[in-house]
């Protein structure tokens, strides 16, 4: 008799994503996953292909719902510098509201990359590179409009802003308080504040 799915795979994946986000890949057991998803091990394997395949799907889901969706909303504002400020404000507010100090699943996974295979590395690297590209595009648009100095090196500054985002996400998990996080935002916006040439 063929296997029949009798549960909501989207909801089950959402629950799995929360477990991985909370505990990390290595510390998450199959028992943790089946309990959170409300399914047995056989159903998990049949629907998702095992722990590693489930983790891939969970990271992709997180990336789509958090990073890519946020970037799309910020780019829709059509005001890159204001959007950058809003991004850092949003990350700070989200971090302060994160009582469990879970941080960002994509960044957390980046910190574990040595223990992951090429597929996970490609997802994480691609997500972070896309974030960097968002910053570069925004800087270039702002430069063309004359909102920031043309002397700012867009690719280098984009890497710097990405580094500050990653640093904020890591330090917000218990090292920096609100003042420390605000200092990161100040540093980020300061990178864009070179005097305009007239």
UniProtKB/TrEMBL annotation:
State if Transcription regulation is listed as a keyword. yes
Residues crossing the lipid bilayer are: none
Q: Which residues bind DNA?
A: 29-48
User: Which parts of the sequence belong to the HTH tetR-type domain?
Assistant: 6-66
Instruction: Give one GO molecular function term.
Output: DNA binding
PROSITE patterns associated with the record: HTH_TETR_1 (PS01081), HTH_TETR_2 (PS50977)
- Keyword Transmembrane helix on this protein? no
| Domain of life assignment | Bacteria
Alphabetically sorted, this entry's keywords are: DNA-binding, Transcription, Transcription regulation
Which Pfam family, an example, fits this chain?
TetR_C_13
Q: What protein am I looking at? A: TetR/AcrR family transcriptional repressor of nem operon
**Organism field:** Algisphaera agarilytica
């Amino acid at each position: 008799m063929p296997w029949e799915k009798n549960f909501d795979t989207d909801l089950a994946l959402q629950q799995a994503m929360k477990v991985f986000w909370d505990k990390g890949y290595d510390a998450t057991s199959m028992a943790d996953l089946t309990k959170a998803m409300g399914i047995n091990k056989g159903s998990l394997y049949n629907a998702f292909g095992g722990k590693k395949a489930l983790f891939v799907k969970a990271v992709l889901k997180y990336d789509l719902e958090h990073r890519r969706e946020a970037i799309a909303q910020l780019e829709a504002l059509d005001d890159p510098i204001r959007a950058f400020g809003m991004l850092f404000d949003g990350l700070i507010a989200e971090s302060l509201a994160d009582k469990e100090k879970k941080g960002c699943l994509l960044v957390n996974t980046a910190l574990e990359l040595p223990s992951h295979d090429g597929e996970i590395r490609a997802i994480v690297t691609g997500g972070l590179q896309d974030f960097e590209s968002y910053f570069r595009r925004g800087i270039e648009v702002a430069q063309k409009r004359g909102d920031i100095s043309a002397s700012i090196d867009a690719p280098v500054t984009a890497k710097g802003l990405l580094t500050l985002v990653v640093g904020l996400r890591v330090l917000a998990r218990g090292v920096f308080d609100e003042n420390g996080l605000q200092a990161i935002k100040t540093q980020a916006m300061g990178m864009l504040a070179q005097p305009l040439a007239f």
